[in-house]
Amino acid sequence: MILTKSPISQHDPAGPAPSQSSMLRFARRFGPHFPAIRSGHRLLHRRAPQELVPSSPYYLIDERKLLKNLEIIQQVRELTGAKSVLALKCFSTWSVFGLMRDYLDGTTSSSLLEARLGHEKFGKEVHAYSVGFSRAEVRQVSAFADKVIFNSISQLKRYGHEARGVKLGLRVNPGVSHSHFDLADPARRFSRLGVTDHAALMEVAPQLSGVMFHFNCENDQFMSFAAALDAIGKSYGPVLKKMQWVSLGGGLSFTKDGYPLRQFCRRLKQFSKEFDVQLYLEPGEAVITGCAELVATVLDVVHNEMDIAILDISVEAHMLDHLIYQTSPEINAPGPGRHPVLIAGRSCLAGDVFGTYKLNQRLRPGTIIRLADAAGYTMVKKNWFNGLPMPSICVRRLSGKLDIVRRFSYRDYEESLS
Length: 418
Ligand SMILES: Cc1ncc(COP(=O)(O)O)c(C=O)c1O
Known about the structure:
The protein has helices at about 20-30, 35-40, 65-80, 95-100, 110-120, 135-140, 155-160, 200-205, 220-240, 260-275, 285-290, 315-320, 320-325, 410-415; strands at about 45-50, 50-55, 60, 85, 105-110, 125-130, 145-150, 165-170, 210, 245, 280, 290-305, 305-310, 330-335, 335-345, 355-360, 370, 390-395, 400-405.
């Protein structure tokens, strides 16, 4: 194991890593457990010539797996004419936009900052949506967005004229949805997401070039999607016929193995033909599902009725959605077996628990754990709770080369506060 500088200092706002001698002085003074030493400076171990391996913890995105999803999206684009814009709220790791760009038509956003990231790092079409824009944000976003999509008629009326030269859209809540969680159900009772008043929608239709319906969340049931689309066609037909484009939002698991892609494509094509509209999809999860792992290390194993392994990561800080939705990530390694263990994070939160598993080995300090499906809604939500070391971000390129595209240091933590 050697100490070495990160090859990614050009992306690191904290600047280049300090010299080895200053790091060793620092380590002697503060000990090996000081976060800057553990996560920032002692980052890389040399494994094989030219191959630098990040030290735990790190997110690892695999471009070959990503490509498989992108090729399905490309197929849908070709078979249906529907465009796909990446939902940045789900995944904004711009180091892989180079690969994504050829397979997607642009990005969609939830804020001015996301829209700007899409414009600057991805290019192509920029859809700018927000649940609530300020006047200044509408002015700024209109300088580069192709479409500004308002969430309400009041926002459209107040700020529509600020978006000069930009196509205007409106989010509609169709009153039908598919979601396993009330928390993520856009058509839940009292939902503030989109317009529900048909008559008011009809009235403002002449100001609009399109409408956006987002009504699914992790929907892998084609029949439920098809039924909802039928209902939307029936309810909104007269409005849709006045539009140039219609976005069907995200939440459709059409890149999942076994999804009836041909039927899906036929239905999309039929819909766009019936209403003579350019269709858009806004995939987030569907783009990056199954493409990344969060690689972590067991720091300790304690016993309280059962073995409890404590990892060098935290559910709350690094995989927040599992805490919010009370779900557990799958584990890619170690494999399944007969040893029960509760796997937990190292934040102070009593419920910082990934889940209970049966693995093929007893976990010990030093065992590497690879948590599956770690790309969607993880890196965009990570936070500095407890001042825990932030997992680096690594990319296994199509060529097989491993790039450590981002590492985080004490300086990043310090600068996230004031
Ligand atoms: C408006 C909109 N579009 C697209 C998406 C992306 O959804 P997913 O990542 O589930 O595909 C979301 C997710 O909440 C959304 O709210």
